[in-house]
Amino acid sequence: MRDLRGLIDEWLRSGQLKVVEGADIDLEIGAISEVSGMGAEPPALLFDRIQGFPKGYRVLTNMFQTQGRTAQALGLSDEFRGPALVNAIRQRMENYKPVPARSVSSGPLTQNIIKGNQINVFRLPAPKLHKDDGGRYIGTQDAVITRDLDGGWVNLGTARVQLQEESTVSIYISPGKQSRLIAERYWEKGQSCPVAIVCGIDPILFASASLGLPWGVSEYDFAGHMRGEAVDVVAGEYTGLPLPADSEIVLEGEMPPPDLDSRPEGPFGEWTGYYASGTRPAPVVHVKRVYFRNDPIITVVADLKIYPLDSYLSLLFRSAEIWNEIEKCGVTDVKGVWQMEAGMRFLIVISIRQRYGGHARQAAHVALGAREGGYLGRFIILVDDDIDPSNMSDVMWAIATRCDPETSIELVRGCWSTPIDPRIPPERRSQGDFTNSRAIIDACRPYRWIKDFPKVHALDPEERAKIAQKWSHILGSR
Asked: For residues 161 and 138, is the Cβ–Cβ distance under 8 A?
């Protein structure tokens, strides 16, 4: 399995990564990432010689904007696309056996350790990505490491992290996320929560941190399973937390109860395309150690309102986990799950081969009740197995021709959302009510008269593949 730097070298050789020199930390990194990301098959971007920073202090954006690059990062064939790529990830997840992290005495991360009054997080090239952002963000594609106070298990989650002072950063963790729940256990006892923030991270470890794994399951164990080998970790000098030994940058410290210490956090241009959560007091981390490799790299998800999206990595893992959650509840014949690029979490498409009346709706309700499918959604779209759930045109055709608005749309209220949801009204936001509604759009042929539904006249997948192969000299690759 290639690590982050191995992937960078491979992508540079194959033309899938471009080095950008001389960009300004204030807005240019985000703007260049957005303009580049709007192109077809956009390259990954590695920013170096950033204005005001030493050569070698780098920022990596747009890593996973193509399915091919994402497959490579996971050690899969870069020919996989859509549901086939999701299924390949599902197969890697199957027969999960935890592979615990392996403790080592040192690693690339420990090449530089800064402590005491030498700490200044502003010396790292954390960018201001969007023009109305409240400051510079070092944590966008990161992992937040905490240890449960009671169970003792180590959790890795994701959060956004803003620079505040030389040795202080603020951290935004959505309500209900495990990192937040763990921190609250410390706060309830009047204690600061030990924490470490990985700001330059291996792709599989980031994907593991962004998943909603069951309570008590360490993302280190899951990442070891997905990698096929244990993650090497070094013990943090200040907290004793296990830190990924080959990561790029780690901030280690403590997170005091917010009623004792907090800072205004945000606004930040979120992945929804909006500034929805505004500015509000957020917990802080007092940084006691800064670890970094020589020539460190900050990994960044720029949260750009662009097509296709910022990261196929999270989309694919979430889609795979929703698929797994549906099947674990005994719903069979799911043929594909996809979170639409333009909508990410807001648009989940489930392709299913109907076996009985209510089969498709059953799959939708299971997805709504599961952790990955239940968080911050808007629409679940059900389609038959002749529809490619990753093809927006195919899905919209199914909605237009198979969905009857009066009988095919179902509303569910009181669902788990978050302050970054742009559609929560101000009055509910002020009351701390971060719930929303969901629509199940049933774009399947009605099972009761499915045999009488008009026949589709298009080629089936096998016929299409034969024609594409026979006439490839005219049609090119399809």
From this structure: yes
Name the pairing type of β-strands 334-339 and 297-299: unpaired
* Residue 267, preceding peptide bond in cis (omega within 30° of 0): yes
Quote the pTM value. 0.85
In the 8-state DSSP scheme, what is residue 310? S
> Residue 55 CB: number of other CB atoms within 10 A?
10
Domains along the chain?
4-299 (2.30.110.10), 329-472 (3.40.1670.10)
DSSP designation for 443: E
pLDDT digits (tens, 9 = 90+) for 250-278: 999 999 999 999 999 999 988 778 888 88
Q: Are strands 143-147 and 193-198 parallel, antiparallel or unpaired?
A: antiparallel
How far, in Å, are 317, 329, 398, 408 from residue 334 at the CA level?
16, 12, 17, 19
Proportion of the chain above pLDDT 90, given as a percent: 73
Distance CA 305, CA 273 (A): 5
User: Could you tell me where the beta strands, DSSP code E, fall in 49-136?
Assistant: 58-61, 102-103, 112-115
In terms of Cα–Cα distance, which of 248, 246, 305, 317 is closest to 73?
Answer: 317
What are 180's strand-pairing partners? none
- What is the SS3 assignment for 475? helix
